[in-house]
């Protein structure tokens, strides 16, 4: 059951915590509690977006309205609240799970008058915008009457105002870094704090599967070896014999395996060609990037059963492919990073994806249009700059249209001393587990224009090796060590775009080995001047500002 605002039965309310300072989360999450003088929330979305959609804030896309907003109103904690009734399909004896795919930046969760995250006295229980939250509310759910949810969202600690000296708010990572303002987008009041991912209820039995993973090995292009693994968690107080059955399509490849899981424990299930010969696929339909072949996809459906009754079902989409990375001499004889897929060298064409929409209002099918246009422009890669997208649909459509993803983590330049390194690690691990089935992910990158601090760099390298089995390369930095990036920020001779470089960053001196006369190789970021049509300009700039051009005072 979806608990997003797209469900007409669901109404979220949003209100500053200070307006309810005498109320506890237990009280606010009690069915029937009235949260008066609030605005209607947008989920997924942000606190600021809720006030924009409610008409409290003039259109931030018009003129310089966004710069006139009092950011201090939004840079503080807010309550989200909603009520719902269970659907008639809810079955007695089943477990009910409350899911939040993303919350930014800190969150505390309450359900039907009880705190369900952390401890009764803890706060900021969930930390980071990429971390999934799941709560077993079986014993709290009201099966016939109303149920209530309350979520306290706390905004990032750093960059409290537009003028704050904290550079870009990077210390608050993991978060949507650009929300603190960049040289290409404004500071967003509240810095994109909110319930920014899907919210939903799911029903299972006592045994559930977590983070199932399908991998493919390609000894040759004519033979693929499939392996499947998943964690199997037994929530009950009795040990269980679990049967996991699966089917891969196309091909109707079936398999089944039994595993014993002790009470309140988790077991690892792994299945490969040594267990089932049918997991060797002859003449597989390979996943290719745009322009090199079809982006063929497979599905794997897993059913977890106990005593002949279905307890949990998971379905994954995956692609059979093989990424390789080699250092190949460029036109002036310097080795540069070169991508190969399924044994074929790939000429990378694409651009940087800054934000899907700077107020996080892009969702669902809107990604289909944006990704399809990349395909129609003959692009084959998107660099997800600083990991600014947390929506699964982005990756789904990249898989579908053959658009590879250079996927950054949430670090930038020298300011990568994050305030909560353990939260960063937890979010990074969840990101890799959540996204690793997507064939479109071509590389994991630690930081934008720098290397992560050693502690984080080593951790990222470790989890990519362990949780993604090094299927994709981990690259510490977006513009060094066999590649380049950033700029231009000024006019350069034409030859600088190809054979020589004034410097890596278009500054006065070479930033690293691939400097003057060494060429660029793969370039992960290059500025291109683009201009909207005048008809578009008229939609967001007042007529009196068309000409002469207004000059900003700062």
TrEMBL record:
Keywords assigned by UniProt, alphabetized: Glycosidase, Hydrolase
Any GO molecular function: hydrolase activity, hydrolyzing O-glycosyl compounds
Domain Glycoside hydrolase family 2 immunoglobulin-like beta-sandwich, first and last residues per copy: 210-321
Domain Glycoside hydrolase family 2 catalytic: 339-455
Domain of life: Bacteria
Gene Ontology BP annotations: carbohydrate metabolic process
Pfam families: Glyco_hydro_2, Glyco_hydro_2_C, Glyco_hydro_2_N2
All residue ranges annotated as the Beta-mannosidase-like galactose-binding domain in the record: 38-189
Assigned protein family: Belongs to the glycosyl hydrolase 2 family.
PANTHER family in the record: MANNOSYLGLYCOPROTEIN ENDO-BETA-MANNOSIDASE
This protein's name: Beta-mannosidase
Organism: Bacteroides reticulotermitis JCM 10512
């Amino acid at each position: 059951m979806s608990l997003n605002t797209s469900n007409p039965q669901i109404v979220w309310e949003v209100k500053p915590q200070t307006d309810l300072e005498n109320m506890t989360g237990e009280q606010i999450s009690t069915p029937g509690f009235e949260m008066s003088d609030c605005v209607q929330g947008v989920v997924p979305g942000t606190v600021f977006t809720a006030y924009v959609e409610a008409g409290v804030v003039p259109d931030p896309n018009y003129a310089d309205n966004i710069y006139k907003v009092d950011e201090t109103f939004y840079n503080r904690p807010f309550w989200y609240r909603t009520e719902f009734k269970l659907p008639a399909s809810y079955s007695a004896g089943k477990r009910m799970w409350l899911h939040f795919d993303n919350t930014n930046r800190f969150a505390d969760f309450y359900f039907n008058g009880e705190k369900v995250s952390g401890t009764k006295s803890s706060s900021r229980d969930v930390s980071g915008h990429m971390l999934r939250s799941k709560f077993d509310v079986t014993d709290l759910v009201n099966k016939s009457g109303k149920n209530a949810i309350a979520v306290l969202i706390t905004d990032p600690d750093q960059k409290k105002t537009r003028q704050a000296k904290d550079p870009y708010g990077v210390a608050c990572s993991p978060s949507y870094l650009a929300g603190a303002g960049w040289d290409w987008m404004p500071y967003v009041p509240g810095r994109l704090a909110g319930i920014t991912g899907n919210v939903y209820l799911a029903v299972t039995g006592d045994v559930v599967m977590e983070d199932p993973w399908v991998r493919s090995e390609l000894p040759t292009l004519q033979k693929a070896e499939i392996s499947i693994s998943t964690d199997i968690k037994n929530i009950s107080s009795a040990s269980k014999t679990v049967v996991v059955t699966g089917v891969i399509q196309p091909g109707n490849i079936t398999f089944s395996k039994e595993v014993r899981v002790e009470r309140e424990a988790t077991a690892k299930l792994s299945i490969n060609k040594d267990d089932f010969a049918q997991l060797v696929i002859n003449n597989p339909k390979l996943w290719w990037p745009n322009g090199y072949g079809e982006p063929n996809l497979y599905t794997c459906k897993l059913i977890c059963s106990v005593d002949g009754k279905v307890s949990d079902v998971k379905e994954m989409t995956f692609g059979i492919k093989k990424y390789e990375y080699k250092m190949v001499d460029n036109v002036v004889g310097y080795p540069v990073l070169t991508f190969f897929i399924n044994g074929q060298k790939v000429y990378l064409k694409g651009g940087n994806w800054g934000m899907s929409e700077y107020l996080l209002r892009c969702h669902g099918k809107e990604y289909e249009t944006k990704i399809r246009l990349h395909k129609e422009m003959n692009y084959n890669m998107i660099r997800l700059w600083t990991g600014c997208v947390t929506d699964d649909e982005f990756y789904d459509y990249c898989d579908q249209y053959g658009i590879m993803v250079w996927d950054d983590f949430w670090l930038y330049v020298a300011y990568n001393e994050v305030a909560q390194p353990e939260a960063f690690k937890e979010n990074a691990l969840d990101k890799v587990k959540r996204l690793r089935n997507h064939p479109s992910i071509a590389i994991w990158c630690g930081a934008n224009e720098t290397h992560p601090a050693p502690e984080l760099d080593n951790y990222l390298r470790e989890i990519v090796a362990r949780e993604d089995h090094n299927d994709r390369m981990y690259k510490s930095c977006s513009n060094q060590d066999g590649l380049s990036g950033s700029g231009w920020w000024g006019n350069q001779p034409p030859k600088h775009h190809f054979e020589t470089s004034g410097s890596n960053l278009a500054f006065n001196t070479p930033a690293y080995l691939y400097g003057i006369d060494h060429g660029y190789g793969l370039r992960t970021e290059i500025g291109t001047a683009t201009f909207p049509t005048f008809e578009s300009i008229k939609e967001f700039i007042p007529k009196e500002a068309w000409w002469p051009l207004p000059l900003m005072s700062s």
